[in-house]
Every structure is written in structure tokens, then in C-alpha cells.
Amino acid sequence: MQLTRQSEYAIRTMLELSMLPEGEFMQSRTIAARQELPEQFLNKTVQILARSGLVETRRGMQGGIRLTVKPGEITIADVVAAVEGKIALNPCLADGYHCANQPACRVHGILKRAQAAMLAELGKETFAELAGEDENRITS
């Protein structure tokens, strides 16, 4: 399994926004320049984050993007789920998937534990913690 580029861009965007003072907006072109991301693709990613309720966008000179969730309340796992949907390493681990082999499957338990470990790791640190570790943190 590999995260999509869109998830990567969403994570990097959320980290940039987490370094701002609470409630402050940042323009997408600034994020794109700092993170060396294509602005058009970033804008599509921001739309997904906005639909999921993680960010708010505002047009105009004082506009841009800002978090709607406190950085201490969101993790990489949350952002990946917002972009990709619920994570399932294998179809047999997806909600509502019925596999006739599951009762006798020798691999299902291993995949389930691997998925749980991955989600636990992605959910360990909040964006507030990640932003605090950045030596280029924006201060006001």
C-alpha cells in the first residue's frame, strides 16, 4: 500500500496550517511555494479537506485557507481518511466486505493486526505536536 500524492499534499498542507496562529488564513500559493507543490493540484486537495470539515476557505485579499479543527485534535490518520476514505490494507478488511474464505483464512488476522498497527502509528501524534517540532515554525 502506498499513500496517494493527494494524501501527501493534504498532510503537508495541514502541517503548514498547523504552524499558523489560531484562526489565521494562509493563501494556497504560499503553501504551494513553501512545500513545492503544484498550486492547481493543491487547490483540488484543499477542496477535499474543506468538504471533510478540516479546513475553511475564504476568497479575497484577506482570504486563504485555515484550519477548522485545532491542530491538537487531528492526526495524519484523520487526514488520510478524509482524502482516501477509510483505510483498508486489503478488501477483506473494508467495512461491509464479505469474504467466503474469512473463517478459514490464515492471513486475515495478520492483515488485520498490520492495519491496526499502521493506523495506531498514524494516529499517535497530533499536528500540534508535529508543528511544534518544526524548527521553521511561524510565530506571531
The major beta sheet can be summarized as: 2 strands, antiparallel
Q: Name the CATH homologous superfamily of the domain at 5-85 and 125-132.
A: Winged helix-like DNA-binding domain superfamily/Winged helix DNA-binding domain
Low-confidence parts lasting 5 or more residues at pLDDT below 50? 134-140
Report Rg: 17 Å
CATH architecture of the domain at 5-85 and 125-132: Orthogonal Bundle
What is the count of helical runs? Answer: 6
Work out the helicity level.
Answer: 40-55%
The CATH class of the domain at 5-85 and 125-132, by name, is: Mainly Alpha
Distance between the terminal alpha carbons, to the nearest Å? 39 Å
Detailed description of the structure:
- With 140 residues, the chain is mainly α.
- It has a domain at 5-85 and 125-132: Arc Repressor Mutant, subunit A, CATH 1.10.10.
- It is built from six helices and two strands, in the order αααββααα.
- The protein has helices at residues 5-18, 28-35, 39-51, 76-84, 108-122, 127-132, and strands at 55-58, 64-67.
- It has a two-stranded antiparallel sheet.
- Strand 1 and strand 2 (64-67) form a beta hairpin.
- The longest helix is centred in the C-terminal third of the chain and has 15 residues, at 108-122.
